[in-house]
Amino acid sequence: MARRMLWLVGLLGMFSSAGEADEFCLLLAETYHEQLYCELQALGQGQGLPPLRDFRRNDDMTQALILKRPAAKAGIKVVLPRQAVAVPARLDSTVASPSHRAVQHTEASCQLHGTELHCGANRFRLVGNRANHRLAEGVLGGANRMAIPKAQGQGVAAGQGALPGYLNRAYRQYLHKMLEIGLGGSTFSYRKFVYLFEDVTARGLDFSERFETMFDFLKRDKQRMSVGEGLPDTSNLDPGRCEQLEPVLVVCDGGHKNYLFRKDN
Fold first, then answer.
1. What is the pTM (predicted TM-score) of this model?
2. Which tops the pLDDT comparison, 161 or 262?
């Protein structure tokens, strides 16, 4: 019981430092090593790890060495990058370049009105997180999978061949699954999604399997930890950074925060 309380206190302190007190560790993880860090915390092997903000200050090799011993205790292998394959430079969460856009935005320009996004004649409502009692039965169970398709010839060259189309489909699947388990208010932007893809595949790992592991941990956390249902603050959101991925779904890259809007029925 004491160990459990110390773990929760550590997590709350970490969230507070990152300005995300209502989110789970894995919702803050933007790299492979950060995902492992959070998985070790969830498995009770993170007592000797530094706070996430300090862990992030280390280079790739130092992070691997920090994780190696607790990961071994948990039966997890820490995979280093393949030789001669560089892990992408850390993403600046305040920049959204065209190469990190999910789609080419061709819809009418959108206007933000509080928690509504008006795109032409269409109205979209801001999505927040949802408590477990509002979810469909069984979505937090082991049978529910992220089911991101496997990429053929996946790699870090995200601007070549059919890879952009794959990443677009994979991102949509990711968003739908996050909505399904009530975490639509805590999603990665497309830029961060692509960045994690590049980081994972640079190490020779399977991206879909890595996200399946992440999804399992998120479902476990969601079962035992509550989430606030308050809507995210949109006061600094630029509607020009919004894209309509599907007829009923708009995603907005707010830099440090990603926003989803769903079309009114």
1. 0.82
2. 262
